[in-house]
Specification:
Layout lengths: L4 H15 L2 H4 E2 L6 E3 L1 H14 L2 H11 L9 H13 L4 E10 L6 H5 L6 E4 L3 H15 L15 E14 L5 E6 L9 E9 L5 E6 L2 E8 L5 E8 L5 H12 L5 E3 L6 E4 L2 E8 L6 E7 L1 E8 L28 E14 L3 E14 L8 E9 L4 E7 L4 E8 L9
Parallel strand pairs: 3-4, 14-18
Antiparallel strand pairs: 1-15, 2-20, 3-5, 5-17, 6-7, 7-14, 8-9, 8-11, 9-10, 10-19, 12-13, 13-18, 15-16, 16-17, 19-20
Helix pairs in contact: 1-8, 3-4, 3-5
Length: 406
Amino acid sequence: MPVTKETVRAVNRLTVRWAEVATATAVGAGPGNTVFSALGVWPLLAFLADGAHGPARAELTEAVGLPAGGGDGAGSAARELLMALRRMPGLDSALGLWTKRTLELREAWEAGLPAEAHGVLTGDEDTDRGALDAWAARHTGGLVEGMPVVLEKDTELVLASALALRTRWPRPFDDFPLRVGHGPWQGRTLLGLGRTSALLDRVGVADTPGGLVTGLTVYGGNGIDVRLLLGESGMTPGQVLAAGVGILDRRHPVLPGPRLPLGEVGPGLRVVRELSQTPDPPVLDVTTVAYDVAATHDLLDRPEVFGLTAARDDGEGHFAGISAQPLAVNSARQAAVARFDAEGFQAAAVSSFGVAAAGGAPRLRWRTTRVEAAFDRPFGFLAVHRHSRLALAAGWVAEPLPFTWG
């Protein structure tokens, strides 16, 4: 069964919510860099919502964007989504649940999770940490080496997801030293990537509430694409990424490459007419940069974004549908990476929730049109499943890779 449009919209909405605060929740991402995957967090929030009660259930339901409980509720949608992800080429996913032996789970809630996902927390921090870290590394091909969870003596349950995606460009970029002459990267020599094609529809300019955004789609060979997003100067990363999701969901008008007028038509985008020896078709000339971004997010720094404000209060229990024992969320984190180079793109994310007990010029005769797209200042990106238009990962590139000689 393919992922439903309602689930795609719900996950993409969480991407927008998170994009607004992504830099604030990132740790160790480098100056301004970030990467995150709402897709990695959404199923976990959905399963928690199904087992929650009271204010925590209401907040989680609002963050998930689908009603909790029932045969067609959030938990059911999460199960269908996880099954759909396993069938997507280039994408690996896994769900993990670990509990102490003394924690008795509600049969109905536990039955909604894959049987093979259930492991045991021994209570020995070193033993449990080793097992959780090994699971994270195994299910991301080593891209994420450890489970981003806080283990405490009263941690009763850990619920986690892992995602890893890879795609290769059918036609690689050329790499070269890119010397930037303006903007935040002025004077630096970066690992530049360039490509020329006749496919002008790969680029376009969107009119969004925050300003104009230039979008470029880099098609992967397995149905996973990467969309590069350059906003007007002054737009925040959150505004640019939100605009990217709006373009993905067809909520913003886009003027495509073949219809662009001459001149400076959008951020980093211009159209020129050139003299040519032959009657060549129009061309799209792309310049961008390679990047390698990693970040760890503490979701409890902005619990309202993820519906976790009430759920983190350990003064009382919030998950009567999971266990009769009073429980509260004491850890919610994600570790994510993304790499974009001349050959392709790869990204991974491990998300986890810890739940604790509560208390020389020739003659030129023809003219040809050239569309020049330059991503030579900070920009956003979305990794997208082409068929469903589901946002798999998102991020912001403020510090690209430098060019190294030799």
